[in-house]
Structure to design on (225 residues):
């Protein structure tokens, strides 16, 4: 039930905020996007004021929520390293590879992940899969290249659909690619990254999670990859 899933997302958001509470006071963190990340941001707002020295945000939506929670938001360009990045995922496999981007924030999410020493994925247990690809793969593209990119996906057995009425914070369209079975996430991410017009593919293999906090009805479990 939707309500139960939201309660699990709230639990895992709280658990991630407890990890942040263990960092030295004044630490900088990276903050993801989506309904699970929203619970994390709300929980961050309940930490002692100033404990989070600042956050690099992965979207305009999360930036607004961070401000509302009283947390200073820094530009990515102001930061060289972040000890921790916390974000949700659409799917996560047993090695910490993820599909991300249902919330259209994949490009900034990958940029923040690249700054981070540790990526902690927060998710309810429904996001765990043996093999990535049941969830349509989001790909941010330059509009001019989208038809050719869709043909390239078709050659791999995928069906790319333009996400209607949506542009990213970077003002680009998105494709959602159905029917891909992603047996080798790192190889497919590397291949798609070569295609002209691809801004970001929502496979996070090179930037996979180091740990996951997974919420199930019997509690939150931590997995280290
Ligand atoms: C946004 C994302 C989100 O992390 C992902 O879609 C999970 O969202 P939610 O926590 O709402 O299930 O990648 O671009």
């Amino acid at each position: 039930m939707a309500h139960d899933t939201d309660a699990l997302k709230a639990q895992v958001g709280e658990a991630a905020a407890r990890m942040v509470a263990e960092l030295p006071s004044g630490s900088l963190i990276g903050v993801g996007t989506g309904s699970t990340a929203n619970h994390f941001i709300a929980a961050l707002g309940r930490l002692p004021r100033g404990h989070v020295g600042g956050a690099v945000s992965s979207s305009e939506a999360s930036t607004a929520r961070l401000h509302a929670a009283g947390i200073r938001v820094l530009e990515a360009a102001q930061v060289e390293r972040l000890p921790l990045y916390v974000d949700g995922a659409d799917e996560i496999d047993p090695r910490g590879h993820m599909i991300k981007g249902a919330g259209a924030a994949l490009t900034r999410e990958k940029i923040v992940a690249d700054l981070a020493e540790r990526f902690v994925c927060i998710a309810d247990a429904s996001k765990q899969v043996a093999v990535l690809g049941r969830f349509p793969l989001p790909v941010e593209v330059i509009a001019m290249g989208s038809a050719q990119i869709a043909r390239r996906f078709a050659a791999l057995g995928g069906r790319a659909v333009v996400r209607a009425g949506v542009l990213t914070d970077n003002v680009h369209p998105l494709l959602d690619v159905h029917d891909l079975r992603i047996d080798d996430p790192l190889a497919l991410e590397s291949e798609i990254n070569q295609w002209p017009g691809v801004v970001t593919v929502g496979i996070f293999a090179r930037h996979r999670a180091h740990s996951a906090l997974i919420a199930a009805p019997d509690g939150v479990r931590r997995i280290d990859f």
